[in-house]
Specification:
Layout (H helix, E strand, L loop, with lengths): L1 H13 L17 H13 L12 H11 L7 H10 L6 H16 L4
Helix pairs in contact: 2-3
Amino acid sequence: MQELKADYFKTLESAPAINDNAFPGYDWSRKIVDFIELFVSLVKSGTITKDQKEPELSETINYFSQIFHIEVNSLYQKLGDIKRRKQKESPMWGRLIQSFQQYLDKTPKE
């Protein structure tokens, strides 16, 4: 566990900084746990890569948290909390699927 923490902080220090003004107006409006679930899923599914490899979770979370102007503290502790929660299915996924389906239902078919 100590090694994971050292790797986490080392990765954070090496992550490229993003100017706060680089993405004005883009903010994360849901829970931090939803943010973590989304970006961990994107990394672990191979959807987000870095140099054609799987990037470090902490680096990816740090990078995108800067874009969306949120602060994610204790990433690995939060991941542990997610694993231990009683509700195994993420409520966020249901909302995303429902929102996408509503979008499809409202847009004209070509």
